[in-house]
Amino acid sequence: MTLSKEAKFYLITYLALQSLLVLTVVISFYPLGAWGVVISLGVSTAKAGLVFWYFMEMRHNRSIIFLAAIIAFVWLMILYFLTFVDLWGRPAFG
Amino acid sequence: MSQPTSMETVSDPGSSASMPEKSLLGMWIFIGTEIMMFGAFFLVYAVYRFLHNKAFEEASTHLNMLYGSINTAVLLTSSLTMAFAVHKAKQQRTRAAVMFLALTALIGLGFLGLKSYEYYEHWHKGYYPSSDAPEWLKHTAPFRLFFDIYYTTTAIHFFHVLSGICVMISFIIYRPLAKTKQWARKIEATGLYWHFVDIVWIFLFPLLYLIGRSK
Question: Of the candidates A6, A9, A48, which has its C-beta nearest B203's C-beta?
């Protein structure tokens, strides 16, 4: 059985995703303090990026679809940014 | 990054406002509303973890990391089979597409099975609002908060997976009644939804299961 180019792409993406899963579990056992959250979220973002780019076929979209796909995420980042500015800016909470 | 040269089965280039694009655009707008809903949950988690980091880390160690890891691997596998189903549907190889779709639904059911078993274990240990709850959970508000967020997010995710499986099964049944091309578009949109649900779990898993493990 010969694999098509697309099938190979999917399989490589899949192997990368599973490797990142192992990585994130292994890293969680190391005492990294505040960096633990940053690295863990970084690995998750990389995994989400692989799914978004390869499985959701974003690499073939450069148009209005791309805009629709990322705009909700952009609004959300504004919400997160403003909330954390508030939390960090109030010594009573920190 | 090199682009694949044979693109004829992937999309129809040149037709910028074609039907496939419209159906995908619709699905992406729906996913946008989902991103904002789950985003609000993640914000609630982030704020309370910021305020009660130590308690969240301790509460997290009461979850079974092995179940969470297996379920992540299971869901990633279902995303692979879904990608194949969409790929085959676009090539109009519907028999193979139906097979991969059924496989995806089956793997999704595996995820739900393990998650249900995990909930059953929580029930036995008393990890729910009741007088039978263990002392550490009963008397510490941030621990209860962590479990509230855990149940809310995983349960909503659970129903998303369940909905995805129902949609897949109905499209398998509906297959003989539909035109091949139209059916392929529906499968492509379903695939986007399924991958999105996978992405939600990709973030839920480390935030709920993996914090406080290094202590």
Answer: A48
